[in-house]
Amino acid sequence: MKAYSGEAIRNVAILGHIHTGKTQLTSALLHTAGMTPKLTKVAEGNTVTDWDEEEIAKKISISTGVAYAEWQNTKINLLDTPGDSTFVSEAKASMIAADSALILVDAAAGVQVVTEKVWDYATEYDIPRAFVINWMDREHANFARALASLEQAFGRKVLPIHLPIGQEKSFRGLVDLVTMKAHVYVPDGDGKAKIEEIPAEMAAEADAAHAKLVEMIAEGDDALMEEFFDKGTLPEDDLHEGLHQAIMTEKVFPVMVSSALHNAGSEAILSFLSKMMPSPLYHGKTTGTSEPGGKGNESERKTADSAPVSVFVFKTVVDLFAGRISFFKVMSGIVKNDATLQNYVRNSPERFQHLQVMQGKTAASVPELHAGDIGAVAKLRDTFTGDTLGDKTASIFYRTARIPEPSITFAIEPKTRADEDKIGQSIHRLLEEDLALRFSRDAQTKEFLLSGSGQKHIEVVVSKLHNRYHVDLTLKPPKVPYRETIRGKADAEGKHKKQTGGRGQFGVCRIRMEPLPRGTGVEFVDDIFGGSIPKNFIPAVEKGLRDAAERGFLAGFPVTDFRAVLYDGKYHDVDSSEMAFKIAGSLAFKESMKAARPSLLEPIMNLEVYAPEQFLGDIVGDLSGRRGRVSGNETRGTNIIVKGQAPLAELLSYANTLTSMTQGRASYAMEFSHYDYVPAELAQKIIDLAKKERGAPVEEEEE
Ligand SMILES: Nc1nc2c(ncn2[C@@H]2O[C@H](COP(=O)(O)OP(=O)(O)OP(=O)(O)O)[C@@H](O)[C@H]2O)c(=O)[nH]1
Ligand SMILES: [Mg+2]
């Protein structure tokens, strides 16, 4: 595989609601560009980008698939992202590698809930975007209606550059509104179109659409505007250049059409991506920071081969045989095969043996990769998603996507002792691939807990554990990840003193506790003066306190968002030990909690529901019954979108309710927003129940 230079590269994120045909269109583009010998199909389980065994079994994308098409001297890197609302945060995590976005909508359904979500991602990353109205061949496909829903959702910058020729069963091609030629496809063919004159019955419609396109492109450009008024149209070259500029400056969002399953439209889309979308060099630079985690000063890096090399790892796959595969974007410089790059985050060198580009799961070797390109490398020792690596003398840290907090927790039970032994190691491999997954152990019940973005997410994890690592688990009913916090201040002493025959145990500490803003976690401050507790025992106090906070106070949920200041204590030359101070720290925490007005917190979710408008009343009414708050609703054609918030505890069975309330005609997306106090009478019920389930929070065990 030859190396491409930056200006010949296009990095395109393919985004959209579930089932709009992102993976199928990727297959069509790859086949049309000659990258696959035949058209692969989602239904046949042989596509390039849905290669994972879970994706094949469930026929949905779970993580972002990476592939490339070589077309008209460009290398188009395709990022086929998942559209299921449970997995869509994966799409967001891949956006950093993309320089443009192709958003698919279903020709019958139009805009859906995830369409708007991924639009927001593209806005956040500020990249040019275009739409494809796919599924043009399906029953009820309706170009005009789908277009109207796009205009309603995203405004008048939405601009068709294609018109479909026929729709539903009779869909057979498109009119290119720039060249004013018809592209007619052989159904299920090689994707190459026959270029013909526009069918006579479409001439008037095409002329009107062309005029609108010319006008929008000329808008704001005086020279073009003048020429347009003079001649009533613009030369094709000017139109191409004008359209390109309008897309780059986000003055227009072009709309194309396709039938991905029958490979109609893909040639026009490939040429569009190659000619109209930006190369990674377009902005000329990327901003990062001088320290990891978005800290330190802002720092800029030129997106150029001449700059010091830096790469950003945006995805990790753990393969049973090949081991860890890190997918990265070259942010600057040239990466050579066998180079050693410094991992700035972990402070360790990594050797890039076997530099590769990936076609799904298949690797092809490359001698080097230029600024802007996307590649992969296997067997890095200590590199994870979100890390930046590069030239040892020129460190920079690129920003990582914020992955939403997990919104649901399941207790899992290993089926046998052998399963229990394997559980930790296999889950840790999955955690490397999947940033939205969390694994923990309940401090009191000792249950293993898996947290993620939804029930489907956890089910996929359980299935992967079974198929890949032969670990069998049962899932217990979902739990709400409650937390505890304090609302007031407290000042208390923890004293551990024991005299048992020979050497005793002695440690005393005094702490002050106060609440911190939501999301700050636990802060421990050492404010000991004059050595009332020797320095070497202070970490033990902190450990005792943090462990106790993790075990909970009211109902066994982790206590968070508080500061503990250790400001005084006592010790004994002979009897004091780390263990004694650990216990003292934990006792001080518990004493303080009693006085600090402990409270229960629950996760509140952002919720967006899309449904035909006749269900508006039912949806709003149902939400208010779930302690929900509706913040607004908008019309999208014959659909409405309802936005609001509700506690997760009330949404555990929302999918089922919504389906039966709307006969399955609604879709929704839910994402963690923040933690808030549980209303008092409800809190008491949760506390009572937790106490019954777990037994009362354990008194200090003597270790
Ligand atoms: N008839 C027809 N079927 C299509 C078309 N595009 C996709 N499909 C079918 O729709 C189903 C879903 O397609 P996918 O490509 O998996 O959809 P997706 O957008 O990748 O879905 P997720 O990745 O799960 O979000 C598959 O069975 C496809 O064969 C199309 O244009 N026409
Ligand atoms: Mg897909």
For the largest beta sheet, what order do the strands appear in spatially? Answer: 2-3-1-4-5-11-6
* Shape assignment: globular
| Mean pLDDT figure | 93
Could you tell me the strand content as a percent range?
25-35%
Quickly count the helices. Answer: 16
Summary?
This protein is of the alpha+beta class and 703 residues long. Strand 14 (310-319) and strand 15 (323-332) form a beta hairpin.
Please tell me about this protein's structure:
This protein has about 700 residues and is an alpha+beta fold. It is about 30% helix and about 30% strand. The strands form 9 sheets. Strands 2-3-1-4-5-11-6 form a 7-stranded mixed beta sheet, with helices on both faces. Helix 12 (about 540-550) links the parallel strand 32 and strand 33 (about 560-570). Helix 1 (about 20-30) packs across helix 9 (about 265-275), helix 10 crosses helix 11 (about 455-470) and helix 12 (about 540-550) crosses helix 13 (about 580-595). Magnesium ion binds next to helix 1.
